[in-house]
Amino acid sequence: MTDSAEKKPPVHTFAYQQPVDDPKNFCYIWVMHGHKTTELRTAFTELYSMFFKKKSYLEGFGYIYEVNIIELLFKTPIFP
To answer: Which long-range contacts (CB under 8 A, 24 or more apart) does 63-69 make?
Structure first.
């Protein structure tokens, strides 16, 4: 674990997004970090892109992705 990862607040929530009409094999993960308090000074959101070479459907589970690259696209603070 790197020093920067140790200093991040815990993950509060995350969301998955895949463009419906994008011919490329990309999906996106939004990650919100912060403490569940009224103190939002340390809260921030990160957007990651995941490039996958294969997507398969597993009955009773959902989609499984064979991921090649995960890249942080941007990080932005959240202010009250």
So the answer is: 65/27
